[in-house]
Amino acid sequence: ALDIGHDLGRAILNARTFEREHQLVEELQALDTYKSQLITTVAHELKNPLTAVMGHLEMLESSPDLTGTTRSSLQVMERAAQRLGKVIDDLLLLSKVGDPTNPVIPTPVDLRAVVEEAVELSSVAADRKHVQVNVQAPPGPLVAMGDRDELDRVCTNLVSNAVKYTPEGGHVLVRLDACGDELLFSVTDDGLGISEQDQGRLFEEFFRSTNPEAAAQPGTGLGLAIVQRIVRRHGGRIDVDSELGRGSTFRVLLPLRD
Ligand code: ADP
Q1: How far is residue 108 CA from its own chain's centroid?
Q2: Which residue range or ranges hold the Histidine kinase domain (predicted)?
Q3: Nearest-angstrom CA–CA distance, 242 and 250
Q4: Is the Cβ–Cβ distance between 164 and 124 less than 8 Å?
Q5: Distant-in-sequence, close-in-space partners of 147: CB < 8 Å, separation ≥ 6
Q6: H or E segment at 253?
């Protein structure tokens, strides 16, 4: 009888702990939804006045009788407004790709074409600092099912980060391969590398490295958070292997089209 009483007591205790944990998970989910809604609302509220500011700046800049000082001030304002616009667009994309009620509408996407475009987009920045970018891929198309714009964003972001965080004269290797029923896309650089401590936080929104050399590069810390969400909502995974001072490899695995 004592044993039964003891077991019953433990069962009740377990049930209560389970109920409390369940409640905590629900509270955290509600907070997360609230945070996403707040980000979307704020981003929308910022976007409209910014569009007006940019329109008027353009109009003023096209005026023929501006002094040199006024013109260069207007150009500084326009660049600042464009940077702000990019942050706002990234915030809107971050909440879009993190929204489970808005899933991907999958279409066949040839990752080879996506990778070639991403490399082309980074070529000006790479040439400027003499960073060599090479692509390694088997012949023929490699098709995943997904959203073309979102997969573009994944490749562009990882390739441009590799170029951005690799000093003058470095190397970037972009690999694409079929790996069983998955598609492997990886970007390796011999640049700044990432400390183990920072690797644990890389995919958090707004995270930027504490390494002064990396922090000296412009950025918002939203890129990898967006990339990870896109990869996850495509049923894939992403990881990083890096050593400070030696370089990094970002690896993305996506399901291949059946
Ligand atoms: P951003 O580049 O705008 O700061 P990201 O989310 O793309 O934002 O990257 C977050 C941080 O991760 C960067 O600030 C940088 O410190 C680090 N990082 C990303 N990619 C690399 C890389 N290839 N090599 C070294 N550090 C990197």
Answers
A1: 22
A2: 41-258
A3: 8
A4: no
A5: 104, 105, 106, 107, 109, 230, 234
A6: strand 247-255
Supply φ then ψ for residue 224, to 5 degrees.
Answer: -70, -30
Which tokens go with 58? 């353009």
**What's the complex ipTM?**
0.98
Tokens read off for 14: 């377990």
Query: Beta-strand (E) ranges in 42-199?
Result: 107-110, 132-136, 143-146, 171-179, 182-189
Does 228 sit in the ligand 1 pocket, CB within 6 Å?
A: no
DSSP letters along 115-183, please? HHHHHHHHHHHHHHTT-EEEEE--SS--EEEE-HHHHHHHHHHHHHHHHHTS-TT-EEEEEEEEETTEE
pTM: 0.87
Neighbour count for residue 226 (Cβ, 10 Å): 22
Q: What are phi and psi of 73, to 5 degrees?
A: -65, -45
First CA to last CA distance, the chain: 59
Whole-number Å distance between alpha carbons of 89 and 104: 18
User: Is the CB of 201 inside a 6 Å radius of any atom of ligand 1?
Assistant: no
224 lines ligand 1 (CB under 6 A): yes
In this structure, what are the phi and psi dihedrals at residue 70, rounded to the nearest 5 degrees? Answer: -60, -45
Ligand 1 atom closest to 247 (CA): 24
- The token duo for 151 is 């997969």
Tokens representing 134 are 């090479």
Q: Each residue of 9-33: pLDDT tens digit?
A: 888 888 888 888 999 999 998 998 8
CA dihedral (20, 21, 27, 29) in degrees, to 10, reads -160
